[in-house]
Amino acid sequence: MPTDNGNGDDHGWWLAVAAWCGSNGDEQKWRKQQSLRSQNSKLQNYTTVHNEENPFLSFISFFNYCLLSAAEAPDPVLDIDGKKLRAGVDYYILPIIRGRGGGLTLASPTGDTCPLSVIQEQLEVKHGLPLIFTPVNPKKDVVRVSTDLNIKFSASTICVESTVWKFEYDEILGQYFIYDGAVEGNPGRETVDNWFKIENFDDKDYKLVFCPTVCKFCKVICKDVGIFVQGGTRRLALSDVPLRIMFKKA
């Protein structure tokens, strides 16, 4: 039980619980956040008694805050073996429906050199190139649904640029396509086109979605990622018909 003898002896308890909660031991930051919570907060009953003269109640409040945060976390994305997707690990994105192409890779369907377009392999047996997922919070190890993330190919190309995904508008075709060459990380207005999400599709499958929340005041398009066929090439594009996918560890 935490105690306070006036010398801050309860600080060790704060550090232990904060470390477990994943807040990097930032007791003061949490206390400040608690003081600003509205009366409709889930922790209302705790914050009304939270003060320096009640260290135990403050400790319990913080512990409950951690439990609530954990309970509200989005579900983890699972691979085909039922294991959680891990940030920084190579995976293949494969289609659920058989007979309609394979994994994902990079190519230049229009003949331009760079940037390269993200396309789907024509043959089902080809897994394409492995990809890495990086959540908006780079400290997070598990990839979760409904969470902003960068997607990049774990490969090098002829282009002197990154393989991080972004979307751009093709004025000739009147279509938004997915390309490489984006900036990784640095969430905000300047990178809003570089963030994607993985969402559930019919409970057991997944789909990719463009609907970034890294810029609170930006007006963005929210659409599924699907396939646009151009001259026989299956290009990834924003679409009303999502590509149903699964993940296989490379």
TrEMBL record:
It comes from the Eukaryota. InterPro entries: Kunitz_inhibitor_STI-like_sf (IPR011065), Prot_inh_Kunz-lg (IPR002160). SMART domains: STI. Belongs to the protease inhibitor I3 (leguminous Kunitz-type inhibitor) family. The gene is LOC113714124. This is Kunitz trypsin inhibitor 5-like. Coiled coil: none annotated.
